[in-house]
């Protein structure tokens, strides 16, 4: 066991996920399977923490000797105030979803964006360099993905959003990181025609259960050479993906993003390679 475990002695490793609400989370099942598959003695529990208790909860993580926690809605932004060090990517993205506790020193990371990109590369597009990518939406989820995507040196990234101004602000903020531009949904047809899009990524919640028939963009704009990806994994095949598939596009869903954001967290906490397939199987089974 590596230096990163120092101080834990023979005690089981403690992990959890902080959020409100927290009953629906699949992280405890996924990480419990990961710990078992890796032969590590540890426990991962859901921790229901309200906004006004967040500061105390983080102090509790240190006091109780938790090795790490995930942070989910609604605390990903606020929690940044309570950690000692924030990883550069998390700082730029403006959200933390993973905390590592090194003997009382808390470091905050964002594994959502890198998790999604690892999933996209493993499962659909091994090399993103030079690709033309259309991202629908520019909220919290999109920020993580776009930041991680820009590290892969894509040819261009076009961010399309219902509120055009928000997409423009994001494109301006990260103009130094790569070729990024913005458009409104009304300009989408023109943007797709002009930019020879290779990959479409839906980062909005449009099409998520229970609104399963909804589409985040007109699918007439899709052509068979495109890879179409949706961050949603409930349902596994959204209406967007279903239509894209019938057009002949390669499709990619959000299940891998969830698995790989957890995988990165597991690797930061334990220093071990995450048992991806064991993790994926548990999440898949919980969805059926
Ligand atoms: P998340 O953290 O899941 O990304 P968010 O930060 O609230 O959530 O961002 C939601 C994104 O989805 C935004 O880009 C939002 O567009 P606006 O900026 O115009 O609000 C987009 N979105 C949400 N619901 C939408 C809908 N019904 N149609 C189009 N876009 C939608």
From TrEMBL:
Broad enzyme group: oxidoreductase
Active site feature: 76 (proton acceptor)
Binding site residues for shikimate: 25-27, 72, 97, 112, 233, 261
GO MF terms held by the record: NADP binding; quinate 3-dehydrogenase (NAD+) activity; shikimate 3-dehydrogenase (NAD+) activity; shikimate 3-dehydrogenase (NADP+) activity
Keyword Lipid metabolism in annotation: no
UniProt EC number: 1.1.1.25
InterPro entries hit by this protein: Aminoacid_DH-like_N_sf (IPR046346), NAD(P)-bd_dom_sf (IPR036291), SDH_C (IPR041121), Shikimate_DH (IPR011342), Shikimate_DH-bd_N (IPR013708), Shikimate_DH_fam (IPR022893), Shikm_DH/Glu-tRNA_Rdtase (IPR006151)
Domain Shikimate dehydrogenase substrate binding N-terminal: 17-99
Pathway(s) per entry: Aromatic compound metabolism; 3,4-dihydroxybenzoate biosynthesis; 3-dehydroquinate from D-quinate (NAD(+) route); Metabolic intermediate biosynthesis; chorismate biosynthesis; chorismate from D-erythrose 4-phosphate and phosphoenolpyruvate: step 4/7
Record domain SDH C-terminal: where: 254-284
Catalysed reactions, as listed in the record: shikimate + NAD(+) = 3-dehydroshikimate + NADH + H(+); L-quinate + NAD(+) = 3-dehydroquinate + NADH + H(+); shikimate + NADP(+) = 3-dehydroshikimate + NADPH + H(+)
Assigned keywords, A-Z: Amino-acid biosynthesis, Aromatic amino acid biosynthesis, NADP, Oxidoreductase
Binding site for NADP(+): 88, 161-166, 231, 254
Domain Quinate/shikimate 5-dehydrogenase/glutamyl-tRNA reductase, chain residue ranges per copy: 121-205
GO biological process: amino acid biosynthetic process; aromatic amino acid family biosynthetic process; chorismate biosynthetic process; shikimate metabolic process
Gene Ontology cellular-component annotations: cytosol
Keyword hit for NADP: yes
Subunit structure comment from the entry: Homodimer.
Function according to Swiss-Prot or TrEMBL: Involved in the biosynthesis of the chorismate, which leads to the biosynthesis of aromatic amino acids. Catalyzes the reversible NADPH linked reduction of 3-dehydroshikimate (DHSA) to yield shikimate (SA).
Classification via HAMAP family: Shikimate_DH_AroE
Protein family: Belongs to the shikimate dehydrogenase family.
PANTHER family: BIFUNCTIONAL 3-DEHYDROQUINATE DEHYDRATASE_SHIKIMATE DEHYDROGENASE, CHLOROPLASTIC, SHIKIMATE DEHYDROGENASE
Name of the protein in question: Shikimate dehydrogenase (NADP(+))
Organism of this sequence: Paenibacillus lentus
Lineage: Bacteria, Bacillati, Bacillota, Bacilli, Bacillales
Gene that encodes it: aroE
């Amino acid at each position: 066991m590596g230096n990163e475990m120092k101080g834990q002695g023979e005690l089981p490793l403690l992990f959890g996920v902080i959020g409100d609400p927290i009953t629906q989370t699949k992280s405890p099942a996924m990480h419990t399977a990961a710990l078992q598959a890796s032969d590590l003695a540890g426990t991962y529990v859901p921790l229901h923490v309200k906004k006004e208790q967040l500061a105390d909860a983080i102090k509790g993580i240190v006091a109780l000797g938790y090795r790490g926690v995930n942070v989910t809605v609604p605390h990903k932004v606020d929690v940044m105030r309570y950690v000692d060090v924030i990883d550069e990517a998390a700082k730029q993205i403006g959200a933390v979803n993973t905390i590592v506790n090194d003997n009382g020193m808390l470091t905050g990371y964002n594994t959502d964006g890198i998790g999604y990109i690892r999933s996209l590369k493993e499962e659909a597009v091994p090399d993103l360099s030079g690709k033309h990518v259309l991202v629908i939406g520019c909220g919290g989820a999109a920020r993580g993905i776009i930041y991680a995507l820009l590290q892969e040196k894509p040819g261009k990234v076009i961010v399309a959003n219902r509120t055009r101004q928000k997409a423009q602000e994001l494109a301006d903020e990260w103009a130094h990181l790569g070729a990024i531009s913005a458009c409104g949904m009304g300009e989408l047809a023109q943007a797709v025609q002009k930019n020879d899009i290779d990959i479409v990524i839906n980062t909005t919640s449009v099409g998520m259960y229970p609104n399963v028939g909804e589409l985040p963009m007109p699918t007439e704009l899709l052509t068979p050479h495109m890879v179409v990806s949706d961050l949603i994994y409930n349902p596994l095949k959204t209406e967007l993906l279903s239509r894209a598939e019938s057009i002949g596009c390669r499709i990619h869903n959000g299940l891998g993003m969830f698995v790989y954001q957890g995988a990165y967290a597991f690797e930061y906490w334990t220093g071990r390679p995450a048992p991806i397939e064991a993790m994926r199987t548990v999440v898949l089974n919980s969805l059926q």
